[in-house]
Amino acid sequence: MSGNSLIAEEEHDNTPYPGIGILESAHECGKALSSGEWVDAGIDALSAGVDYVNYLDNPAGALLG
C-alpha cells in the first residue's frame, strides 16, 4: 500500500458462513475453546444462544436478517 499508518489493511473472512449469526457464533466458540480462551468462548456461546432464541421467536426475520 501507500505506507500510511492511518489506513487500515483490508481483512477478508474466508469462513463458509460469514454473516450467518448462529453458525458464526458457534464456530467462534469452538475456536475459543480449542485455544483455551474461556471468556471469549462464554461470550460466543451466549451470542449463539441469543441467536437461537431469536430464531425461535421470529424464524422468518432471523432467516432474512
List the helices and strands and how they pair.
Blueprint: H1 21-34, H2 38-57, H3 59-64
Helix pairs in contact: 1-2
The percent of residues in helical segments reads 55-70%
Q: Report the biggest beta sheet as strand number plus sense, adding barrel if it closes.
A: none
Count of individual helical segments: 3
Distance between the termini: 35 Å
Strand-residue fraction? Answer: under 5%
Structural class: mainly alpha
Low-confidence stretches: none
Overall geometry comes to: extended
Give Rg in angstroms: 16 Å
Total number of beta strands: 0
Query: What is the H-and-E element order?
Result: HHH
Rounded mean pLDDT is 81
Could you name the key traits of this structure?
65 residues, extended
Explain the overall architecture.
This protein is mostly helical. The protein has a domain at 21-64. It is 62% helix and 0% strand. The chain is built from 3 helices and no strands. The protein has helices spanning 21-34, 38-57, 59-64. Helix 1 (21-34) packs antiparallel against helix 2. The relative contact order is 0.11.
Short description:
The chain is an all-alpha fold.
